Amino acid sequence: MRIKGKNFDGEGGEEEEQKLVVGYALTLKKKKSFLQPEFERLACKKGILFVAIDVNLPLSDQGPFDIILHKLLGKEWGDIVEDYRQTHPEVTVIDPPYAIQHLHNRQSMLQDVVDLNLSDFHGRVGVPKQMVIMKDPLSIPDEVAKAGLKLPLVAKTLVVDGSAKSHELFLACDWSSLSELEPPLVLQEFVNHDGILFKIYIVGDAIKVVRRFSLSNVNQCQLAKVPGIFPFPRVSSAAASADDADLDPRVAELPPRPLLERLSKELRHRLGLRLFNIDMIREHGTRDIFYVIDINYFPGYGKMPDYEVIFTDFLLTFKKKKYRAISCED
Ligand SMILES: Nc1ncnc2c1ncn2[C@@H]1O[C@H](COP(=O)(O)OP(=O)(O)OP(=O)(O)O)[C@@H](O)[C@H]1O
Ligand SMILES: O=P(O)(O)O[C@H]1[C@H](OP(=O)(O)O)[C@@H](OP(=O)(O)O)[C@@H](O)[C@@H](O)[C@@H]1OP(=O)(O)O
Ligand SMILES: [Mg+2]
Ligand SMILES: [Mg+2]
């Protein structure tokens, strides 16, 4: 029997701390990078128990869970989680599938940053000029010229579904090569940012920012010499952090904390998500002009410093809320 966070065995009256049961549905790769032994040990010490969800069995037959964490591909899984969320309001599902879906499209993922129009608040945050191409590769050069986008352009798949293909990026350096690209895609102006990217990890109310290596600046001269379309290396997702690199302090300087706090808070509310990260770059030659280029759901938290403590604390906030609710009913 569960009473006010304690378990009573009903016989000798002995009390045992009630566990917070977290069901998780993650890929094997994610499980390995997220559920590291040190994290599980700390969580266990704090009364959190992780239980794997079997996706081949009905979700309602499993548990009972206090919290569900999930990141799996496909609409079918999204529908299962949404249905469970509706029928089990007592369980905290992190996060709602429809809100996650918003990040699966590279156009809609950045729309809230545009709407937010954060300026004159310790800096300015926008998104690079971009456009969507749905079909007809031959028309791309004309469409791009009409939209007024400047070369070089980063070509990204429109849909982000976690597949390797959805992370294939290209740098397009001349007009005629643009028609070699494969729609549907997003074309985004390449913003010079001195090779450093800021990854802003959000876990509920907590924010952690790290530096990562990114692509070097491209100048007009290089552009004229190297026409064509070049595959992009996924430099910034490498575990190697740029936090200890010997960098120009103007480049290394982290975005102002109040700016990050405001941006994160707004995006948390607007997106309706608690677990995501934001890829942000500072425009070359400026101190306070930033661009958000990517937002990822349930990113690689295993690479976030102190993630064990931050995540454990985050999960425990739900325990407090839950037992507060029970106490109020008494
Ligand atoms: N508009 C841009 N201007 C300059 N560099 C960019 C731009 N867009 C992307 N990049 C570079 O390319 C990398 C990958 O781009 P992006 O983050 O959009 O792709 P992704 O596949 O979603 O990556 P992730 O692994 O973070 O999910 C960025 O981390 C950055 O280094
Ligand atoms: O592979 P990692 O663990 O590093 O995590 C990456 C994560 O892959 P995973 O969910 O399969 O783990 C990616 O998710 P999908 O877009 O592919 O869904 C995306 O969120 C990246 O941005 C994460 O890297 P980070 O931004 O943290 O550097
Ligand atoms: Mg990214
Ligand atoms: Mg991404």
UniProtKB/TrEMBL annotation:
Residues 21-100 form the Inositol-tetrakisphosphate 1-kinase N-terminal domain. GO terms for cellular component: cytoplasm. GO terms for molecular function: ATP binding; inositol-1,3,4-trisphosphate 5-kinase activity; inositol-1,3,4-trisphosphate 6-kinase activity; inositol-3,4,5,6-tetrakisphosphate 1-kinase activity; magnesium ion binding. Keywords: ATP-binding, Kinase, Magnesium, Metal-binding, Nucleotide-binding, Transferase. GO terms for biological process: inositol trisphosphate metabolic process. Mg(2+) 2 binds at residues 294, 296. Its EC number is 2.7.1.134. 1D-myo-inositol 1,3,4-trisphosphate binds at residues 30, 71, 167, 199, 296, 300. Mg(2+) 1 binds at residues 279, 294. Residues 122-316 form the Inositol 1,3,4-trisphosphate 5/6-kinase ATP-grasp domain. ATP binds at residues 106, 156, 188-199, 214. SUPFAM superfamilies: Glutathione synthetase ATP-binding domain-like. It catalyses: 1D-myo-inositol 3,4,5,6-tetrakisphosphate + ATP = 1D-myo-inositol 1,3,4,5,6-pentakisphosphate + ADP + H(+). PANTHER family: INOSITOL-TETRAKISPHOSPHATE 1-KINASE, INOSITOL-TETRAKISPHOSPHATE 1-KINASE 2. Belongs to the ITPK1 family. Kinase that can phosphorylate various inositol polyphosphate such as Ins(3,4,5,6)P4 or Ins(1,3,4)P3. Monomer. This is Inositol-tetrakisphosphate 1-kinase. It comes from Gossypium barbadense.
